[in-house]
Write a structure and sequence with these properties.
Helix content is 47%, strand content 17%. By secondary structure, it is an alpha/beta fold.
């Protein structure tokens, strides 16, 4: 080989190598996923979280080109399944259905939670929003928030309200409502929403804050009346129900948050995998069938990129911690 040809080869070799490696780099970036992805639902089968996770997971399969398995690992109000995912390999193949209750409220009010959400998880996507609605017993004869508050003041703590248990969304929302309106009522705690709604329908309890999916069948049947929504705007499924700001109680929305759910991965999951999963989830949320089914669940689909989802997770966790301490949920 001549000196010229050697010099030419030396000059061209790095460029040639880079060109040769381009397809390999592209393959490496597009390789995820190469096997099935699992979404852990940290609750029992049959609930709303289980339902939307299965719906979204099935739609993700088309975008990912892989099977998406939904696995229920219930227990300890979501802590068992969440801990399992927190300890899983951060490779994008094991995810968890998470939300404000399990990963923002629980760390503040549950002693010895076996994980720190903002340290051990990273948000892949926020999939839906679900505010709390105020339902009142039909036998009270009230039709709006102002008349209901007047009734509570007149009864001076004689009426009951039901919750799905201590520190749940229904409990926190009711306590905040009583604090802001300067009223009193007796807290009756149940092991879940089902028993609580039964006593509301029967008129044994005066009111209950809960998700739309829990309250709306009884509202439509006339057994209870939904009179307010803890949101910044009216909800599409019940446009006739005013927000609390519209109802004359804007202070209820100060420091208030909308409950949301989504999908998270173990901290340390590579960004390309997170973005790939986020894109697949967003594709699923754009599907008309998903929008229709979400409406039936009382959910509003939410689409954002991964970085925005993570920022909301971190910011809402801080907001909720401050609010719960102010409300006295933390000594």
């Amino acid at each position: 080989m001549s000196i010229l040809s050697r010099r030419t080869f030396a000059a061209l070799a790095p460029a040639a190598l880079a060109v040769a490696l381009l397809p390999l780099a592209a393959v490496a970036q597009q390789a995820f996923p190469t096997k099935p992805v699992t979404i852990v639902v940290p609750y029992a089968p049959g609930g709303v979280t289980d339902a939307w996770s299965r719906l979204v997971g099935a739609k993700m399969e088309k975008s990912l080109g892989q099977t998406v398995i939904v696995e229920n690992r219930a227990g300890a109000a979501g802590a068992i399944g969440s801990q399992y995912v927190a300890k899983s390999a951060p490779d994008g193949y094991t995810l968890v259905a998470f939300g404000t209750s399990s990963h923002a409220v629980a760390p503040v009010v549950v002693p010895d939670l076996p994980f720190v959400p903002t340290r051990d998880f990273v948000a892949v996507a926020i999939t839906n929003e679900q505010p709390m609605f105020l339902g009142v017993a039909s036998n009270l004869g009230v039709s709006d928030v102002k008349s209901f508050v007047a009734l509570l003041k007149a009864k001076k703590g004689e009426l009951n309200f039901g919750t799905a248990g201590a520190n749940t969304g229904s409990h926190i929302s009711a306590v905040r409502f009583l604090q802001v309106t300067g009223t009193e009522a007796q807290d009756v705690q149940y092991r879940g929403t089902g028993s609580a709604i039964t006593d509301l329908v029967a008129g044994r309890n005066a009111f209950q804050f809960d998700a739309l999916s829990t309250l709306v069948p009884h509202h439509k049947a006339g057994a209870i009346k939904i009179i307010g929504v803890l949101a910044n705007q009216r909800w599409p499924q019940l446009p006739e129900v005013p927000t609390f700001t519209e109802a004359g109680f804007p202070d209820l929305m100060k420091g208030q948050w909308e409950y949301w759910q989504g999908i998270a991965a173990p901290a340390g999951t590579p960004k390309p995998a997170l973005d790939r999963l986020n894109a697949a989830i967003n594709d699923a949320l754009r599907d008309p069938e998903v929008a229709e089914r979400f409406a039936g669940f009382g959910l509003r689909p939410h689409i954002s990129d991964q970085a925005t989802a993570q920022a909301r997770f971190i910011n809402d966790s801080a907001t909720i911690a401050t609010a719960l301490k102010t409300m006295g949920f933390v000594k």
